[in-house]
Amino acid sequence: MSILVNKDTKVIVQGFTGKEGTFHAEQCLAYGTKIVGGVTPNKGGQEHLGKPVFNTVKDAVNSTHATVSMIFVPPMFVADAVMEAAEAGIKLAVIITEGAPVRDMQKAKAHANKHGMMTIGPNCPGIITAEECKIGIMPGMIFKKGNIGLISKSGTLTYEGANQVCREGFGISTAVGIGGDPIIGLSYKDLLAMFEADTETKAIVMIGEIGGDLEIQAASYIKEHITKPVVAFIAGQTAPAGKRMGHAGAIVSGGAGTAKEKMAALEAAGVKVVISPADIGKAVAEVLAK
Amino acid sequence: MNIHEYQAKQIFAKYGVPTPKGMLASSVEEAVENAKVLGGPVWVVKAQIHAGGRGLGGGVKLARSLDEVKKYASEILGMTLVTHQTGPEGKLVQKLYIEDGADIKDELYLGVVLDRAKEMPIIMASTEGGMAIEDVAHNTPEKIIKVAVDPAVGFQGFHGRELVFGLGITDPAEQGKFIKFAAALYKLYLENDAEMIEINPLVKTGSGDFIALDGKMGFDDSALSRHPDIEAMRDISEEDADEMEAAKYGLSYIPLDGEIGCMVNGAGLAMGTMDTINYMGGTPANFLDVGGKANAETVAKGFEIILKNKNVKAIFVNIFGGIVRCDRIANGILEATKLVDVHVPVIVRLDGTNAPEAAEILKNANIANIITATDLADGAAKAVAAAKGK
């Protein structure tokens, strides 16, 4: 078991033949991901990386029965791509593209919800079920198979966390980079529920950051519903208020969304909160030893 | 991106949101000329900087004669205005906005922002105009009315009614005027990809009209490419020169007041690195995300920008190589040290893809002030020690 994706998941790539799409699709194929085709308008009928190219997501789904789409289209086309995937019957869209306007994501996510399609991202590294299926841009080799579920707003902190977990002798079941934009798809709460239900996952690492209140929502959810141990790190304890720290959503505005309040809420929910990301691995070992 | 009050009011006017008559001036003479054209008998002389709290800082004055316009204009123009939003260094006032005085009966607050939890814009209104909304939210949250408006549905009559009844506006004619005002504001928020709009205060005049006495707008940077008219309003003198220089090279840089320069890939790890330095007893001098494509040129630029800050006593390069291979980054660092005179200790932690090869490259290069670290904790500890001269 794992969550959302596994070795049998059929994946298409929107923005398949572009530079980024090509490079990362190739890496995913090498990892073993079942990429069954891709979509680039006006290139339908061609072959790319040994897989068929389609003009529309509908064509791609009809002929390949893919359920997941990995999206690499340019930022201004993200909303269009997401809504197209939703209407074509895709079940999960993983949006890697950075820089999609907030208003577009608002519209696209509402439309995806209406059609029962889940989304991950935008501006995220993607999702990986260790040694089975990688849908995204993360370096596959650091994710050894194991029993730790990982959820993170940050790409490189996902790698940092996974790497430490593996160095401690554990491994990853599934790791999900949810992105740091103001409006994102699946959030901590949704994924915590999935990891709680997943028999393979024994503990969960959640990495958050300043801005918004998803981590606070997660804390109340953990208190009520999560029985597995959770380790958390919140980035941006030293970030100045009112400044956007790289990610579009990483900003303390009007005194709300600070690392301090998030850490306190998580601690109150029984989560093992670390002050430095350097302690994530050790903390996982600690909570599992209990 | 933020814009000035006078620019926000230009956008308001386009959408029929009432504002006082006003004119921009960049000299004292121009201020007086504008005041003559506006006619008086009362004018407001307002500093144009990208920060709130201008009035309390002495940047907004009421003038009752042309002589007073002249006096206040010469006082404010060229002053360094310090408000709770500018930081202690303040901001130089280079432009004035000369406005007709308004007949103020009541001061209200009206704003539109994205509610991240609801995933839609909300209109915020309050009877406590003229005060910092953060303080109102903190001390008397019941005095803020929040109405979420789904863009798919648009601003409806009931949204307007929630606002006017919440604010205690009882006169039907006034209700109609306020609802029209709020609807126009919501429309311009959506159509311009604004991130926030704040009108504080929005005044009710003696004759029961509503006017935007102030105006503050910020925009979604990701959407600027489809709004060339807004992009044209950018005032580069209001932005940090080093941040802008860094952005040209794809670097995300924010100066802080500590001693350890940081160069990191990824925003989350960059914040996490600052937090770790702080945890170990040091102080970060900056946030710097070199992005996913760190190479010799970007690393060199990063060193250059970090070292402009004279407080920097050590630099911590913390890279977790994913798709980017660490050996390439190690070579990039060596190249960069040839391009830039790096006179402080540089602690380098390279982990991830090809990390052992990278360590070998740095070891063989044998550069005196490059210190290698095995992981994040080790690197942060070494950087803190180096900054303290140990």
Jot down its keywords:
heterodimer; A: 290 residues; alpha/beta; seven-stranded mixed β-sheet; 9 helices; 14 strands; 34% helix; 23% strand; B: 390 residues; alpha+beta; six-stranded antiparallel β-sheet; four-stranded antiparallel β-sheet; 18 strands; 25% strand; elongated
Brief account:
By secondary structure, chain A is α/β, with parallel strands linked by helices.
Could you walk me through the main structural features you see in this protein, from its secondary elements to its overall organization?
- The complex is a heterodimer of chains A (290) and B (390).
- Chain A is of the alpha/beta class and 290 residues long.
- Chain A contains 9 helices and 14 strands.
- Chain A has a 7-stranded mixed sheet, sandwiched between helices. A 7-stranded mixed sheet of chain A has the order 9-8-11-10-12-13-14, with helices on both faces.
- In chain A, helix 7 links the parallel strand 12 (203-209) and strand 13.
- The two termini of chain A are 24 Å apart.
- The model of chain A has no long low-confidence stretch (mean pLDDT 95).
- Chain B has helices at residues 5-14, 28-38, 66-76, 133-139, 157-167, 172-191, 228-231, 241-248, 267-279, 296-308, 326-339, 355-365, 376-387, and strands spanning 22-25, 43-47, 60-63, 80-81, 91-92, 96-100, 104-115, 120-126, 144-148, 194-205, 210-212, 216-219, 252-255, 260-264, 286-289, 314-321, 346-352, 370-373.
- In chain B, the strands form 5 sheets. In chain B, strands 7, 8, 9, 10, 11 and 12 form a 6-stranded antiparallel sheet that branches.
- The longest helix of chain B is centred in the middle third of the chain and has 20 residues, at 172-191.
- The chains are: A alpha/beta (290), B alpha+beta (390).
